[in-house]
Protein 1
Amino acid sequence: MSQELESIAADQSALVLFSGGQDSTACLAWALTHFARVETVGFDYGQRHDIEMTTRLNVLNKIRDVFPAASRLGEDHVVDLKGFGAVAESSLTRVQEIKMSARGLPNSFVPGRNLVFFVYAAAVADRRGIDHLVGGMCETDFSGYPDCRKDTLEAMETVLNLGIERPYRIDTPLMYLTKAQTWAMTHDLGGGVLVDLVLEETHTCYLGQRGERHAWGYGCGTCPACELRATGFEQWRSGHV
């Protein structure tokens, strides 16, 4: 860590949970406009498609090239959580059809994933002297995952503060935004350059497909993540935000 970054206060610093998807890229841009120092953390939890781990590096490199506040972007960290992915049965970690489960949740739900992510992010942040943890969770356009809810994350913030004795703040700038509003926010933060970066470089598709470039970016076009992204893009482009 440079001496310049070391001098920046913990409450002016943020650690972004960064997958290289549309939402975490929007959150990274948001953090770069709100904090003097920003670092990123990614999680290798045994995803079916490891393209996410490659894509996130491409996005980070592009952000450093084109985003106005990129000079605030510091280290990237990667945490190995393959053991967790092996325990958590999900269509995101095992080859199986994406469908609703008997409990009323899509089987793309990885039980406790976001909770685990924040525990590890908090440990990284403590070592790095960072108080803000930024995540792309949203309970407006989501699949019903209970660990994306505001109530869950407020409780998690309390647990981290008590368990680590650090004044963590979990920031979720997308919590009440639709996907169309996320596209609008992306444009507001970085204009057409940032929108183009999201379209060309980010990866959101559950099936890991990047063969076809749609108007809204790359993906299979049929999984829930692609459908949300495509619908939101069309709504934003047509002015229905």
Protein 2
Amino acid sequence: MSLLPESASFEELVQDYFLAVRGSGLMLSALDAELLTAWAREGVPFEVVARGISRSAEKALWDARPGEPVLRNLRACRRQVDAEIKKYRSLAAGASAPPEPTSKRRKALSWEETRHARLIDALEDLAGREPTLSHQVTRLRNTVLARVPQEPAVMDAQEALSFLALLRALPFPQRREVWRGALSVGTEQQVMSVRARKVSRRFRLVAAVRRRLGVKEV
């Protein structure tokens, strides 16, 4: 999700992603930095926190006024990020726990496996609601989503690629409408770097596609 060097710290990755999704700013406040440090101590992958941030931003995106940042501060994401951390830890613990000898229950799914399954279900539901996209959904299942990811970053990439592919499958007038809608909200500040601007635009575009297709959080 981030284009920072692989050597970047957890804190740098989260700050970079938050400011890109927010659409403005160069640094975090002291209170936000304190919260970021607390998240770093949780020891979860960057993508887990980034998912909480993106979900918080997506919920606020369509209420933002022109020229206003989508999120005022990192603390606005706290509830969603904490929920993602809790969910990740719960699923990670279940997936790593050895099965009981006498138990016939299936092994618990990991965070990535759970997200992958929910995304498949959401796309199947979409294909049922919009038959014109059923071919593209089948194609995605056989290509982009053919393998269940083992890393959070791969799952993020699969999800983004899936919605961008669905955008390309829409008729041109609808694609144009989605593009215009994505670029009309949360106008970026000129001080944003090229990297941050790219992340910001991708976030808003994927959010606009999900909104157009009526696909809720997966």
Protein 3
Amino acid sequence: MDIKQHIREVPDFPKPGILFYDISTLLMHPGAWQHTVQQMADAVAPHKPDLLAGIESRGFLVSAPLALKLGCGFIMLRKKGKLPGATVRHDYDLEYGSDSIEIQEGAIQPGQKVVLVDDLLATGGTMAASAALIRKVGGVVPAAACIIELTFLNGRDKLDMPVTTLAKYDQ
């Protein structure tokens, strides 16, 4: 099955000149969604994760069913101020500004293997920051996985772990 047939392309979103790859249409198709989750599971399982870390917010949609399928835990990486309780934050630079990502304190035990999961790999900045945050709290990041990769943005060049993507777009 070609999952690209179930990913909608939305021109000029969120601003003119941007082509947005929308997984909503993939999520609406049970067969395509099950196929996608199975492909992700096949890619992630060899890394034997203790936890999957979903990156806000569409990464949650991918990580939760994948964690169930793999029989491992799921944690959320969120923007500053979105998680209850004590958190650990990592600040990082973007092309035009900066951002922060947080995890709940104690969500990862030292040495736990945590695979990063998101819907899309673009410039790699958020994924690299997520890996840095996981390591900051003592986790090990053996791999990352995304449904979509925008290869023309060279995001995987910023990452120091293997990355699996299912649908690659060259423009």
Protein 4
Amino acid sequence: MIHIEVQAQNQLDFSERMFVYNYRIYDRFKIPVTSVAILADDSPTWRPGPFRYGMWGATMGLDYLTTKLLDYKEKWAYLERENNPFAIVLMAHLKALETRKDHSLRKQWKTELTRLLYEKRYSKAAIINLYRFIDWVLTLPEALEEIFVEELKAYEKEKNMPYITNAERIGRKKGRQETVIALVRKAGKKGMSEEMIAQFVDLDVNLVRQILNNEPVEIPLHLLSDS
């Protein structure tokens, strides 16, 4: 069995949790278990190690494999050459961390990574699915998103490959986002729980909580219905 944990923030008891999950899987299936931690946080120094406990000479613990995604910042040229679709996912993740406070730079990288999907000659389905992830992690303010869409539309026309979307469809989804946010807030005022609202509008409960707390929120386009 392979046990994979994707951890996006520093957690003091993370190594203990890896140990607990590993032994529970072994206890359930009685076969060897390899545990792998994918560290997707933004701290260069957080690198959790093995878990150990014991007394009186008796010890127990777990050594597990780790991959620190931030380390790939130094391997950017390799990621650009790599045809494995996960390279695009990793590049988008790194740029999402890097551009959290710089929307103009984020738009630039969203454009470059989207164009890279075509340059790598992925299939139509792969381009659409990978773009959904790029759109999710590299959200833009409405004004910059509109500029991005126009540039993308021109690029797709030039390549004669209108795979991802067109400006009208994205525009409709942007309007639909406002409708969903209004619906969530109305449901909250009527006393519905966050979990019930999340199920009703088909959104993650954390997004629903942000909306109810009047926090700024961008709903990824692919989570909004086309109907």
